[in-house]
Amino acid sequence: MNTIGAALQAEIDLVQRLAGQAGRPVELLAVSKGQPVAAIESAYRAGQRKFAESYVQEALVKMAATATLDIEWHFIGPIQSNKARVVAEHFSWVHALDRIKIAERLDAARPPHLGPLDVCVQVNISAEDTKHGVQPAAAAGFCRAVADLPRLRLRGLMAIGRPGLDFAAQRVQFRALRELFDDINDKGQLAMDTLSMGMSQDLEAAIREGATIVRIGTAIFGARAARHK
Ligand SMILES: *Cc1c(COP(=O)(O)O)cnc(C)c1O
User: Fold this and answer.
1) What is the pLDDT of the chain when averaged over all its residues?
2) Is the Cβ atom of 76 under 6 angstroms away from ligand 1?
């Protein structure tokens, strides 16, 4: 097997083992931003079907080049308003929703024949490091507003862990997101089923604390170009 195939299989094995211990299925999303089409094809040949991209133009080029493959595409980057339409037309999932104006644009632009766009609301669990994501205190209201949009299907919450934390601190932040998720489901009577959390550096902590989707790039494909850090 080639390097990507072997690395992918190692990540699948790790995720399966942790998911088994957690008693819950966990999906592995292959984050292919900053990687060439050949890398996507290698992972596809090794069995991977779900891929994630962060930049619209880059994603469109790769989609065209892999049009004959049966790939489910997830958009995990921030969305600018002038890109909402093309995202709604080309992706199955959006993970980083954090502005109601973008949610409304995605809703308006989602082609009916594609069925609802699956979305996660990004929560900012590391206020010091990023401006992206809704604040935890605002998440319930934001989720309610998204759930009311007919062409979107609210699936859950997403977060990016702070870099540089030890394992215990990684768990604390992911536990907080899971508690927020449970709270919003209970009080808001929403039936969210997805916690999108965990990347190459913190997937074990995320799965132990409730992740149902992990987004893995570097551990499968190796380092990316600098722009895609
Ligand atoms: C780049 C990226 C990932 C993958 O990160 P790795 O550390 O390479 O596994 C996951 N989620 C988001 C939102 C990203 O931007």
Assistant:
1) 96
2) yes
